[in-house]
Design a protein that fits this description.
Elements: E1 2-6, E2 12-16, H1 32-42, H2 54-67, H3 77-86, H4 93-109, H5 112-122, E3 124-126, E4 129-130, H6 132-140, H7 149-156, H8 171-187, H9 193-201, H10 207-218
Antiparallel strand pairs: 1-2, 3-4
Length: 253
């Protein structure tokens, strides 16, 4: 399966979904801390809902009404996968209904582990940095399996949108959000207190990133205002429509 992702100048690029992608990381090679950090950050009820978290949607609607504008999306990880594999990113009621239907069908058809694998392999972590396999090497010079708990929280902190949580220009913002994710993880008993203390004491080795920052500042990517959609949707690449809601999801690599 092939989708289209966009670089920060808006140009589309082909992206292979599945093992034929050389950077694809199968579920078994995903560090547990990365899976937990993403759930703590994006979808706390991932293992209990059936693809759609109606409580989160209700809270998002309330937040939108209070603010008088679209500030929260309430999308689950499964909804994000559905949207980016089968739909466009247009903000319309029809697209949202299609997303909900497809998310339910994905939850019926796939295991939670397969959904997480798909999510973590297509999510955007930076300028044309799609998927955890690419991100681990790009930021830390290592495979995903070697990431520490702190590094996993660091990467998860960018998922609302790497143009907003941009370590090139907003490192403090990224680090503060990664601290919040770590606090959620220990509060939910996803990690032990000892792991939490060690992660908080760790300073990510960003020597490679520092070099990339210097290069990027010479020709910086375009700025983007925060979309306010939390959790999730802005951090996933745009996909071409491949399956209407009247059909079951298929050919997911």
């Amino acid at each position: 399966m092939t989708i289209t992702v966009k670089d920060w100048q808006g140009k589309g690029h082909r992206f292979v979904v599945g093992p034929k992608n050389p950077r694809w990381t199968p579920y078994g090679a995903l560090p547990a801390a990365m899976r937990k950090a993403v759930i703590a950050s994006e979808d706390a009820n991932f293992y209990t809902h059936e693809g759609v978290d109606y409580e989160a949607i209700g809270e998002a609607i309330k937040a939108d009404l209070r603010k008088g504008k679209f500030v929260r999306g309430g999308s689950t990880i499964t909804q994000q996968v559905a949207k980016n594999l089968f739909l466009t990113r247009e903000r319309t009621l029809i697209r949202k209904v299609k997303e909900l239907i497809l998310a339910r069908r994905l939850d019926d058809a796939l295991s939670k582990s397969r959904i997480l694998e798909l999510y973590l392999n297509v999510v955007e972590f930076g300028p044309m940095v799609y998927g955890i396999g690419h991100a681990a090497g790009y930021y830390f010079g290592k495979p995903p399996s070697a990431l520490t708990v702190r590094e996993c929280a660091f990467l998860a902190s960018m998922l609302p949108g790497p143009k907003v949580y941009n370590p090139y220009r907003k490192m403090d913002r990224v680090m503060k959000r990664s601290d919040r994710i770590l606090r959620r993880m220990v509060a939910a008993r996803m990690i032990s207190r000892e792991e939490y203390d060690a992660a908080m004491a760790e300073v990510p080795n960003l020597a490679g990133l520092a070099r990339k920052v210097e290069k990027t500042l010479e020709t910086p990517p375009p700025e983007e205002k925060p979309s306010g959609e939390t959790p999730g949707a802005p951090g996933i690449p745009e996909a071409l429509p491949t399956s209407p809601p009247g059909e079951s999801p298929k050919n997911i690599y």
